[in-house]
Amino acid sequence: MPSKVKRSGTVALIGRPNAGKSTLMNHLLEEKVAIVSDKPQTTRHRLVGILSEDRGQLVFLDTPGIHKPAHRLNRTMVRHATEALREADIVCLLVDVTERSGAGDRFLLELLKQVEGPRILALNKIDRVAKPTLLPRIAFYDETGLFEEILPISARRGDGCDLLLSTFWERLPEGEALYDPELLTIHPERFLAIERIREKVLIQTRGELPFTTAVLLDRWEEEPSGGLVRIYASILAERPGQKKILIGKQGSRIKAIGTAARKDLEEFLEKRVYLDLQVKLEPDWRESRKVLRELDREVDLAFETEE
Ligand SMILES: Nc1nc2c(ncn2[C@@H]2O[C@H](COP(=O)(O)OP(=O)(O)OP(=O)(O)O)[C@@H](O)[C@H]2O)c(=O)[nH]1
Ligand SMILES: [Mg+2]
Asked: What's the topology of domain 7-171?
């Protein structure tokens, strides 16, 4: 009997910062690949998440939120997103329905006009608004004529996500898997580990620090027995005041970050973890080619930081 035709391709998750792209990817994969926080500009690279089933392979491209870039770091972030948008077989725009639409959304709609493949709109965070408020939103996007489907979802709770997933599968091109079906992602464990540390920094600093921190891996040592891994990393602060916030009173904040990160990493790596975190002052690191290159080193992406 001839084997059934398989489908395989990429779906780019695009949107403004904080729209819920990473939450959606993790939910659809049923695994945490991307870190999530309530601060905008959490995702800084193009992240690959792979969903393999008998019917084929769906490869998600989670992207940084599209915004007006003010630093070299941000220009690279936005470039990762626009490249994913152009390369993907399907583009899914996520819109946070709790936010008013504005110039940023109009810019995204303009970008979407350049896309040749199917465009899907996911109106996210419907758990936070009353249903009738969605209707004018749906009508507005419908009138643009850009979208094959407009689906209200809650990436956090999962509402509407099954339907969204079938919408993707139906539109995927025919073809063989792009990646080994055993893989969940293509990023190295080390990159995913330092991202998890950065997530704890974002969570623990809440309203006090915006998105100006980065985590650099200094050393990663595994014991030959494999039971323990020693991770040495630096948290970068742009200004002395930020360094103080990160360290906290008598080191309380950095200690809390370290404890939360170590617990998370032990579960993730399934090993005992010794974690050494240092806070380093690195003024203007968002403009520094050297720092940005170092940050990119672990991601294992083909992209280069902007020269
Ligand atoms: N109430 C609610 N919150 C959500 C939903 N989806 C995501 N969030 C929250 O929105 C915030 C941002 O989520 P992320 O997944 O990090 O958003 P993102 O689009 O990846 O953001 P960037 O990477 O910064 O561009 C987090 O606090 C999420 O928990 C949702 O469906 N409902
Ligand atoms: Mg994200």
From this structure: Rossmann fold (3.40.50)
